[in-house]
Amino acid sequence: MLAQCAGEPGTAGGGPLPVIDPAVRTAAGAGQVRVVIELRMTPPFTPEGNLPGPAAVEAQREAIARTQEALLARLAGTKFSISHQYDGLPLISLAIGADALARLDAAGDLVVRVLPDAKRFPQS
After folding, report:
1. How far apart (Å, rounded) are the C-alpha atoms in residues 43 and 62?
2. Is the pTM of this model over 0.70?
3. Which terminus of the chain has fewer CB atoms gathered within 10 Å of its CB, N or C?
4. How does pLDDT run across 66-109, given as a tens digit for each residue?
5. Residue 118 confidence (pLDDT)
6. Are 48 and 60 in contact (CB under 8 A)?
7. Phi, psi dihedral angles at 81 (to 5 degrees)
8. CATH code, 12-116
9. Residue 57's CB: how many other CB atoms inside 10 A?
């Protein structure tokens, strides 16, 4: 899902810019939009099955939680709500307004990309 977003991050002020899906920009301009945010991890994210053991898994999960907390702190004072926080993946799902999107746009140190959070399959 995350690899589907077109475009490459640029740089500004020496830091990377997050890739914001154009559909997110359009929807946020009209009101709140649900998004999935890929977090920028340091060190980079490694699938848990490739980590050397339980201590490394726990350390990575703690790093994900810290990055989520830092992003939420950065969004303080804007219109957003948490849809889901992931434990073992560098992702967070939010509903955001235009003011929160503006903050995400400037959060390249914490955000890789912002994609629409949409149902992929119709329910029967």
Report:
1. 12
2. yes
3. C
4. 999 999 999 999 999 999 999 999 999 999 999 999 999 999 99
5. 78
6. yes
7. -145, 150
8. 3.30.70
9. 15
